[in-house]
Design goal:
Number of strands: 9
Number of helices: 15
Helix content: 40-55%
Structural class: mainly alpha
Strand content: 5-15%
């Protein structure tokens, strides 16, 4: 007689089916939660996780400016939302200062290692190999630390050590797993389980932790403390960088010390446009978000969306069709200008 154990839910086809059902339930619960309007007179911090927003608010209350708060929030997100943010990633930042100086963007997206070539990832003309999705060969040269440090150096008022303190505290003291993060861990369970160091933090007795569980990350706190003490160069030329190269090398990755040492975040002019009298400022390529946001708004400007009614059938139809055109254009024409 076959016994079905609870642990079996987290393996193979059983796990995938179970994960899909839980994800559907979670989305339905989210849909039932009504939005709340929030206002403030002197400043506001918004992010994907309240604890990260609180980190940014703490910096504002200590006299920091918006850039100081944004950097603190980003580092805190690396603790409490590691599925979407972290030292191993990259991004873009749009900055517009109140003194009237020109707006700009910082491009700190990941770069391909020097040894990586397209032929290593494409199994046919139109398909990407699984190497691009997970594993050491899928890892690009991280830009987060360089980009956030550059923003702070050029436009912030506080030191890297100061803005890192809320994130260090969160990593050491721990934070409670939210329903959303619990679902994310469940969704990535098979990948997390493959790496003992990751599993030790984000799994409990080989299971995804339920909401309310406290997670601590002392190793990340140590990395943040090194950055606070030695600066961003520690990530690219110091102990942290050495550890990255060593671990990825063991697993067949491409990143070398030279790749890390060559990495630079880039200051760029933003993409600008207009929408119903408003000036739109957003990130420039290689991200397609800015150019195609402007393109989308230019299309929608031809329609009286207010008359159609927010989220009405006609409103959603026009929005969906406009998005289809914009994303088709993006997929066909968008690339990194540095490699045109």
């Amino acid at each position: 007689m076959n016994r079905f154990r609870l642990r079996d839910l987290f393996h193979g086809n059983n796990f995938r089916f179970f994960r899909e059902i839980l994800s559907l339930i979670f989305l339905l619960l989210l849909a039932s939660v009504s939005a709340q309007e929030v206002t403030a007179e002197h400043g506001m911090v918004a992010s994907a996780q309240p604890l990260a927003s609180r980190a940014g608010l703490e910096i504002l209350q200590k006299g920091g400016n918006a850039v100081d708060a944004a950097v603190a929030t980003a580092f805190a997100l690396g603790v409490v939302e590691p599925n979407a943010s972290g030292l191993g990633g990259g991004g873009f930042m749009v900055i517009r200062m109140a003194d009237g100086s020109p707006a700009l963007t910082i491009d700190y997206r990941e770069m391909a290692p020097g040894k990586a070539e397209p032929g290593l990832y494409y199994t046919s003309k139109h398909s990407l190999d699984s190497l691009t999705r997970s594993g050491a060969k899928s890892v690009g040269v991280p830009g987060t630390v360089a980009g956030l440090a550059l923003a702070l150096e050029k436009y912030g008022t506080m030191s890297l050590a100061e803005v890192l303190q809320p994130a260090i505290r969160l990593a050491l003291d721990g934070y409670r797993v939210t329903e959303n993060f619990s679902a994310m861990i469940l969704n990535s369970y098979e990948l997390i389980q493959q790496h003992p160091a990751t599993a030790a933090i984000y799994l409990q007795n080989d299971f995804p932790p339920p909401a309310g569980t406290v997670i601590k990350n002392p190793d990340l706190a140590h990395s943040y403390e090194l950055l606070a003490q030695k600066g961003a160069s520690e990530f690219y030329r110091g102990e942290i960088g050495e550890a990255i190269v060593k671990q990825l090398g063991k697993e067949g990755g491409f990143i070398t010390r030279g790749d890390l040492q060559k990495y630079r975040a880039i200051l760029k002019k933003p993409v600008t446009g207009s929408y119903r009298g408003y000036r739109i400022i957003s990130s420039s390529p290689p991200t397609g978000g800015g150019t195609h946001l402007v393109e989308l708004l230019n299309i929608l400007e031809k329609y009286d969306l207010k008359k159609l009614g927010h989220n009405s059938a006609d409103y959603l139809h026009i929005l969906a069709e406009a998005m289809k055109m914009v994303f088709a254009d993006k997929n066909l024409n968008m690339a990194d200008p540095a490699f045109y």
